[in-house]
TrEMBL record:
Keywords for the protein's UniProt record, in alphabetical order: Oxidoreductase
Protein family membership: Belongs to the short-chain dehydrogenases/reductases (SDR) family.
A Pfam family the protein falls into: adh_short_C2
Protein name as annotated: 3-oxoacyl-[acyl-carrier protein] reductase
Listed PANTHER family: OXIDOREDUCTASE, SHORT-CHAIN DEHYDROGENASE/REDUCTASE FAMILY (AFU_ORTHOLOGUE AFUA_5G02870) (PTHR43639), SHORT-CHAIN DEHYDROGENASE_REDUCTASE FAMILY PROTEIN (PTHR43639:SF1)
GO molecular function: oxidoreductase activity
PROSITE patterns on file: ADH_SHORT
Amino acid sequence: MTTLNGKVALVTGGARGIGAAIALRLAQDGADVAITYENSADRAAVVAKQVEALGRRALAIRADSADPAAVRDAVDRTATALGRLDILVNNAAVFLVGPVTELGDDEVERTLAVNVRAPFLAAQAAARHLTEGGRIISIGSNVGERAVFPGLSLYSMSKTALIGLTRGLARELGPRGITANLVNPGPTDTDTNPADGPNAAAIAGFTALGRFAAPADIAATVAHLAAPEAGYVTGAVVNVDGGFTG
């Protein structure tokens, strides 16, 4: 597929899991891809080589999403090194859970910094580079709409905030032909939430399909929203969750 030929994408947290799958799918569809990572340098290098093996340009940027300067710099470096920026995928996140009465200030601050402030700052920086046809796609979570287990209050709050961000961006950037959408994955088979993990059966049981998604399932929806065919979709919240919130 070449629907994204000539486009440049930045995927935050693109060294592993859903982020890596998104980066590779966008490359398969024709985009040059930059990714950010914090600690997974080896994995980031592998993803970059896989992108290059598809005939696309790749850029791996070390950036802590809790650092505002690093977030802005990653956006600007992508546009400078790859010549432009067309697609921003806000994927980087932290998953800090626990009883609401026991979560400390550091956990609250890091969750809000990475899961809420960073997507805003990345979108703000990207808006200075994006032109007509630009895309901002954020990755939320099914628990932003349905927290079925205790201990999710902080994380759920941070992901719900992306709904407001997405709808605000859609309204503000729409006149420039730039869309903003939110994808909420359901249970997805990754290193941090494996489909054969100790709680996997219970988690899968909350879905209508009774199983986990593969990262590629989430990436396919992101690729659709990034494509020209989705140019009239904006401000949308797309649940790719196997019926978890249905």
